[in-house]
UniProtKB/TrEMBL annotation:
A GO term for molecular function: indole-3-glycerol-phosphate synthase activity
Gene Ontology BP term (one): L-tryptophan biosynthetic process
Catalytic reaction(s) noted: 1-(2-carboxyphenylamino)-1-deoxy-D-ribulose 5-phosphate + H(+) = (1S,2R)-1-C-(indol-3-yl)glycerol 3-phosphate + CO2 + H2O
Name the record gives this protein: Indole-3-glycerol phosphate synthase
Gene: trpC
PANTHER family, sorted: INDOLE-3-GLYCEROL-PHOSPHATE SYNTHASE, TRYPTOPHAN BIOSYNTHESIS PROTEIN
Family as reported in the entry's similarity comment: Belongs to the TrpC family.
Pathway: Amino-acid biosynthesis; L-tryptophan biosynthesis; L-tryptophan from chorismate: step 4/5
Amino acid sequence: MNTRSEELAPAVRSILEAASERSGGDERVSVDARSLSEAFAAAEADGRVPVIAEVKPTSPTTDGARDDDPVALAASMVEGGAAALSVLTEPEHFDGSVENLTRVREAVDVPVLRKDFIVREDQLDAAEADLVLLIARFVGDDLADLVEAARDRGFQPLVEVHTREELAAALAAGAELIGVNNRDLGRLEVDLSTFESVAPEVPDRVTVIAESGITTPADARRMREAGADGLLIGSAIMDSEGEDASGTGGDVSANTRRFTAAESEEEV
């Protein structure tokens, strides 16, 4: 299964081309990772929906940007009940950086995912994190080697899939954390039924996370009912434009709490 760049949306193809040219780290990293499964279990025990809240200044699929200090955003997300955080480190299209990741991880005590578009082993060494994202569609036949290389460094690899075929490849590669992306990277269209189609094929021993398109607490409940152990939420938490019906607007802590409390009677 090899990536065919012509099958990707132009914005995604540009991201992948930039990723293939980006250098890796100078030295091999070794990480003492914080456990995502333990963080999820702690959230569940506390009556919270396990949410990975994403520090995402901007993206090709959203309008505008936030220039808040990433550490302040991260602290607000944790205050809102996030079980873990995701920090964009892709610089050209998402205004991310490894410096932001490092600062955030030093400031919080929850697991931190490095969200980037890793296509080579040396790129794993660009920064320390608790988890790293590996996108099955982007790395193709190198997936198993990258999963092993990530684990050798102490990372917990989160393998992102969109189809049952990609899920099968991820499981064959030994993935224990699977993210099902509701966004089709070929057309950039979002469909929550993607998770509902793919998730039933995930073995019980594997942690499965719903990604993309979760914009309301109702969406969160829908994904949980479909079997999501956790949710990765970016834009709906980072959104700084106006206010929605809950009155939370751009309050990152309150936005986070809307989702972490989505299954409780005290939903904000």
